[in-house]
Write a structure and sequence with these properties.
The complex is a heterotrimer.
Chain A: E1 10-16, E2 19-25, H1 31-38, E3 57-60, E4 63-66, E5 79-81, H2 94-101, H3 111-124, H4 130-137, H5 148-163
Parallel strand pairs in A: 1-5
Antiparallel strand pairs in A: 1-2, 3-4, 3-5
Helix pairs in contact in A: 2-5
Chain B: E1 2-10, H1 13-21, H2 23-29, E2 33-40, E3 43-52, E4 55-69, E5 73-82, E6 85-99, E7 102-114, H3 116-150
Antiparallel strand pairs in B: 1-7, 2-3, 3-4, 4-5, 5-6, 6-7
Helix pairs in contact in B: 2-3
Chain C: H1 15-19, E1 36-42, E2 48-54, H2 56-59, E3 64-69, H3 70-76, E4 97-98, E5 104-110, H4 113-120, E6 124-129, H5 136-140, E7 155-163, H6 166-171, E8 175-183, E9 195-201, E10 206-211, H7 218-227, E11 234-238, H8 253-266, E12 270-273, H9 276-282, E13 288-297, E14 303-313, H10 324-327, E15 341-349, H11 364-382, H12 386-393, E16 402-403, E17 409-410, H13 415-425, H14 428-440, E18 444-458, H15 469-473, E19 483-489, E20 495-499, H16 508-520, E21 527-530, E22 533-534, H17 551-578, E23 585-588, E24 591-594, E25 601-603, H18 604-613, E26 626-632, E27 649-663, E28 670-680, H19 687-706, E29 737-741, H20 759-775, H21 790-807
Parallel strand pairs in C: 1-12, 10-11, 14-15, 20-21, 28-29
Antiparallel strand pairs in C: 1-5, 2-4, 2-6, 3-5, 7-15, 8-13, 9-10, 9-12, 11-22, 13-14, 16-17, 18-27, 19-20, 19-26, 23-24, 24-25, 27-28
Helix pairs in contact in C: 7-8, 11-12, 11-20, 16-17, 19-20
Classes of the chains: A alpha+beta, B alpha+beta, C alpha+beta.
């Protein structure tokens, strides 16, 4: 457990997308702000700061979480993956291309959060039904696409996964 | 929002009335009340710390006691303002003696809440108000019982 | 036209960066050094006088650079100009009064947002509460609380219109059908909220403001007037990535002015990123509206005349471009029907709710809800099928171009064909059987229909219909829908396009590349489109921006024409060099060749190169370099005439919807079983993007019909302050949707394209409401308000039951 006074800074060490970051932050600093401003990873977006829209979703130790509902200090010593880490070493994640092919994005603001949730979902579901995909997506707000292209993209990658 | 209720208190009517007028008792019994000081004739200023849904905060409150008809009836008017919003509430308290050692207290209240706490905690407000008020009278009841034990 | 690129479902060029987390949205940008952050103190009261504001404690808090209040704003800015004669004074901060919950009262500028918000709590404001009013009809009453004393009432705008001979039509009617409809206030809540980065440079007296604003750029003059600055000292820059808007971000401009002044006072660049609670309470929204509507009807179902009184609630301040909400659909008030006699009374009323502005559909959903519901009611009264009533009244194919009584000119369409297509796809006749059977089993199935005309490409002149002809005559007429684009080629042959249509997800970069690729015979992927907008360097005019679905009709046409200018230039150079007439030349495969003369050709690279590296060989009189700008407008966008007739939009599409629902009468829950839409938007430029736009618009309409409402209690307290209470549709709420296209090209645009993307936002609420009423037919339930929440439906069923028991 970390104990700190309100304005006292705490050193937070995290590995993000395989790279080590160490920054001094106030205990109340949200993980979303930490990623975007202290670490310069602006791919993770903030849409509501109360855990409903899902735009800020990242993976902490593998689990998809709302970074707006966590403090940076709670992520100390964790392994975090953000959308920037999806296409590491030059090769894109199949979800990224599938979303484009199925026109599952328009403004792109909700996209990073959806990619992170969907990546976790596909690791845990080998043959998901459309209902299961929609259920997982219910934690994400998209106001552009009407969700159809997103569901199709995830189903497409699931099928390709299964066929492989 | 509005509400009402009643509670049976141990103590003769004058004693109960006196307790309800005592700022030290009120400070102890109002949930989240850090301090209360007299700032005018029957007017108090209090620091309240209350949390409703996700909205916690401090309220700077003014409490006025009006329409005093000792020992049967009085009205409390509360106006609290703070970061999370504001509260405008009115409570009417009526006391009836049941016998020499028991008093029936009936209350009605109406409250208007505004600001962030209303915009976000709307669904909670009715329930929280009931909780806060119920808690207040429970604590008054305990306070009276303790006083009796000591006596 | 047989196209290689236009009309093809090309994958979007924006997608690579957006799927990699490498978009540049406003909050990702740091265009100046030493940016500080702002936090806004907002009114918790719907209506109050500001007696005093004490900021000393806040100013002394750690990291705080400045605290701004209304007095500072009143000293440095003018009220925002607005197109009504009522003397409403609207500043970017409340000055003497607050008029809605959430209205900005003070701004703290600090090192970061956390410290700024800490300081907000230290600001002390003394308010004197005033009675509030939020109900439209109550606000019109003579003893209603008045928001703007100088106006004297809550009416911001009030007009009467009379076309044809309405009284005669009603005299000759066999039947008059009338009803009152209520339309709720809701938003479109883009996932990205408002953002502003403002900088004032005192040495040049230059304001530079970055924001996710998207026009219309008439508002640049409004901002310049407010800031009391020459327009070229107000540089507005829009990032290439904006996280959705659907009209809502048009309302960021008061905050742009606010942060510009804040930067000037604080002496540092200021960034403000709105949070979601602020967005729901105080950004922008569509209007709520009460419509009194009457139709003069013949026994055979023909509607001969309409009388409408529409009252829109524009919120605490009438804010430009309002009251355009009332007039955007003025030209298509009669929808797709051949109604010749029309009477309208329009009122914009101010109440203690947040100010309104552009929203997807803008006026369409508020118009078509009463109109399409009334068509269904007419069918009920006549004992006819709604499909027959609709078909009877639809404008015929041979009547195009069709001029409506209010001056709209529908450029093209085949409404009956589209409607018949729809009925065929949904097996309309079979449905009635299915419905009967279901009812026998105790299930309540219903089908709703709606036909609407989708206006696109707003004519800036329509906004002046808020003024009387006499008032209009006092200033210059307004018209046009101009858009600019530049196509240039650099010395090494790199093709660049600059657009001023400020996309917010519609894929303008991709479609522009497709068009330029088509015209210049190159691979669209080699064309670089610059979507960032800069009022000092982009080709723009007052109508620029993304709104009223104008890219397909107007924005793309500007790109097309600029590309054609480049093409013509290259052809002329080739003509000079090859000494062959123009009509003998073809441009394709990266070169210009002489027809039927193999080997006689010049590569584009060489032609382009000569303009830069060797202008000596150019035809006499031709300028070096390749940098062509085109401004495109459609002559159909004329000012309103002295009879108050105006063609408010330049192109008009058609949408016919059919929806089936099942209503659970025990719980009031509405389940949408399927949604079919037949869509005519002229020539489609990129089918992938088209369907995406239609789906997105449909889901916005669905949200408005079923879930979304910016709710206030009767005292003006704002109730839907977070996404826990303001409900947006998520994936499981989306029904199966079938989209079918019909293309009647527009004769007015070079590519035959019309705008799209707002159609189903306008039709979905009406069609779903029609379906629900159809499902509940026989129960005595009338649907005349939204959203169709289980609570509301259940109450309607219970009330109708009680009423029937009483009369039985």
């Amino acid at each position: 457990m970390i104990q700190a006074a309100k304005h006292e800074k705490v050193l937070v060490r995290v590995r993000i997308n395989g790279k080590l970051y160490a920054e001094e932050v106030e205990p109340r600093r949200l993980l979303s702000d930490f990623l975007r401003e202290d670490c310069g990873l602006t791919g993770t977006h903030v849409g509501c700061e109360h855990g409903v829209c899902g735009a800020c979703t990242v993976r902490v130790n593998g689990a998809a979480v709302r970074s707006c509902l966590m403090f940076a200090v709670q992520a100390a010593d964790a392994e975090i993956t953000t959308v920037e880490g999806l296409s590491l070493h030059g090769s894109r994640h199949p979800l990224q291309d599938a979303l484009s092919e199925c026109h599952g994005l328009q403004c792109g603001f909700c996209t990073p959060g959806i990619l992170m949730s969907a990546a976790e979902f596909l690791e845990e579901h080998q043959d998901p039904t459309t209902e299961q995909i929609e259920e997982m997506l219910s934690g994400h707000l998209c106001r552009c696409t009407g969700y159809k292209g997103i569901v199709e993209a995830i189903a497409k990658v699931a099928k390709e996964q299964k066929d492989r | 929002m509005t509400g009402n209720g009643s509670i049976e208190l141990n103590g003769p009517i004058e004693h109960v009335f006196h307790k309800l007028m005592d700022p030290e008792v009120l400070t102890e019994c109002i949930m989240g009340c850090k301090s209360m000081e007299l700032v005018g004739e029957r007017k108090y200023r209090a620091d309240l710390s209350v949390g409703i849904a996700a909205v916690k905060g401090k309220y700077d409150a003014y409490i006025t006691v009006e329409e005093v008809q000792a020992p049967h009836h009085f009205k409390l008017v509360v106006h609290g303002e703070g970061g999370p919003g504001y509260v405008d509430a009115e409570g009417i308290i009526d006391l009836t003696p049941l016998d020499e050692s028991k008093t029936q207290l009936t209350y009605t209240y109406q409250a208007e809440v505004g600001g962030k706490v209303a915009a976000i905690g709307q669904r909670m407000l009715g329930g929280v108000a009931k909780l806060l008020i119920g808690d207040f009278f429970k604590k008054i009841k305990k306070n009276l019982e303790r006083g009796q034990q000591i006596a | 036209m047989d196209c290689k690129h236009i009309g093809k479902p090309m994958k979007r060029v924006e997608d690579i960066r957006l799927t990699s987390g490498r978009g540049t949205f406003i909050d990702d940008m740091n265009p100046f050094p030493n940016i500080h952050q702002a936090a806004i103190l907002r009114s918790p009261y719907p209506h109050a006088r500001i007696k005093e504001i004490r900021t000393e404690k806040a100013e002394r808090m750690p990291g705080v650079k400045a605290v701004i209040t209304g007095q500072d704003i009143a000293a440095l800015t003018n009220p925002f100009p607005v197109g009504v004669t009522a003397p409403v004074k609207y500043y970017s901060l409340a000055v003497d009064k607050v008029r809605f919950v959430g209205e900005p009262v003070a701004v703290v500028i600090a090192k970061n947002r956390y410290l700024a918000e800490d300081a907000l709590e230290a600001i002390e404001v003394v308010y004197e509460q005033l009675p509030a009013v939020v109900d439209i009809e109550k606000a019109l009453e003579p003893d209603a609380p008045v928001l703007h004393e100088a106006v004297g009432s809550n009416i911001a705008n009030h007009r009467h219109f009379h076309y044809g001979n309405v009284d005669e039509a009603f005299r000759q009617a066999d039947l008059v059908v009338k009803h009152t409809f209520f339309y709720p206030k809701y938003s479109a809540t883009p996932v990205e909220t408002y953002g502003v980065i403002a900088h004032y440079d005192p040495s040049e007296q230059q304001y530079t403001i970055w924001s996710n604003f998207h026009g219309p750029f008439t508002l640049q003059s409004v901002m310049a007037a407010a800031l009391r600055t020459p327009s070229n000292r107000l540089r507005i820059m829009i990032p290439k990535d904006v996280g959705g808007s659907y009209g809502i971000k048009s309302g960021v401009y008061p905050y742009m002015v606010l942060m510009a002044v804040a930067s000037r006072i604080a002496g540092v660049p200021v960034k403000w990123i709105e949070d979601r609670q602020e967005h729901l309470a105080a950004s922008s929204s569509g209007t709520d509206r009460v419509t009194w509507i009457e139709a003069a009807v013949k026994r055979d179902g023909t509607v001969t005349g309409l009388k409408m009184k529409m009252v829109d609630n524009v919120g605490g301040y009438v804010r430009a471009p309002e009251p355009a909400c009332l007039y955007r659909t003025h030209s298509n008030t009669t929808g797709p029907y051949r109604i010749r006699h029309l009477q309208m009374e329009t009122i914009a009323v101010m109440t203690n709710k947040s100010p309104t502005g552009l929203i997807r559909g803008y006026g369409g959903q508020q118009l078509y809800f009463p109109l399409e519901r009334l068509m269904h009611m007419i069918a009920q009264k006549l004992g006819m099928d709604p499909a027959d009533v609709i078909r009877k009244n639809l404008i015929r194919a041979e009547e195009f171009p069709y001029t409506t009584p209010s001056g709209g000119v529908y450029d093209s369409g085949d409404y009956r064909k589209a409607f018949d297509m729809l009925l065929d796809i949904v097996n309309y006749d079979e449905f009635r059987q299915k419905q009967k059977q279901a009812r026998a089993e105790g299930k309540y199935l219903g089908m709703g229909l709606a036909c609407i005309v989708e206006p696109s490409g707003s004519n800036m002149g329509y906004i002046t219909i808020a003024l009387t002809p006499e008032e209009r005559a006092k200033s210059l007429p307004k018209s046009g829908c101009a858009e600019g684009a530049t196509v240039s080629i650099d010395p090494m042959g790199g093709i660049t396009v600059r657009i001023s249509t400020t996309p917010t997800g519609q894929g303008h970069e991709t479609v522009a590349a497709q068009i330029v690729g088509e015209v210049l015979g190159v691979d669209p992927r080699t064309v670089k489109v610059v979507a960032e907008m800069d009022t000092l360097t982009s080709p723009w005019s007052v109508a620029s921006g993304s709104y009223s679905s104008r890219f397909a009709a107007i924005g793309s046409s500007a790109v097309y024409q600029a590309a054609h200018k480049v093409r013509q230039k290259l052809l002329h150079i080739a003509q000079e060099l090859l000494q062959v007439p123009l009509d003998q030349l073809v441009l394709e495969h990266g070169r210009i060749a002489v027809k039927d003369a193999p080997g006689r050709e010049i590569s584009l690279k060489r032609l382009i190169g000569s303009t830069h590296w060797n202008p000596d060989v150019l035809p006499p009189g031709m300028e070096p370099g390749i940098h062509e700008t085109a401004f495109y407008t459609i002559p159909a966008a004329m000012p309103p005439d002295e009879n108050d007739q105006v063609n408010g939009s330049v192109t008009y599409g058609f949408v016919a919807d059919a929806v089936t629902v099942e209503v659970d009468i025990e719980t009031g829950e509405v389940k949408i079983l399927d949604y079919t839409t037949v869509h005519d938007a002229g020539k489609l430029l990129n089918p992938l993007i088209v369907d995406g736009q239609i789906l997105g618009g449909l889901v916005h309409g669905l949200g408005g019909a079923m879930y979304e409402e910016l709710a206030y209690d009767r005292n003006g307290q704002f109730l839907s302050g977070s996404f826990m209470d303001y409900l947006c549709p998520t994936a499981p709420e989306i029904p199966p949707i079938t989209i079918k296209h019909l293309e009647t090209p527009s004769p007015l645009t070079p590519l035959g394209a019309k705008g799209l993307g707002e159609g189903n936002t306008m039709s979905a609420p009406a069609v779903i409401a029609n379906a629900v009423e159809d499902a509940l037919s026989g129960l005595g339930v009338t649907i005349d308000t939204l959203p169709l929440s289980p609570n509301r439906i259940w109450t309607l069923i219970q009330d109708a039951k009680q009423k029937m028991e009483i009369t039985a």
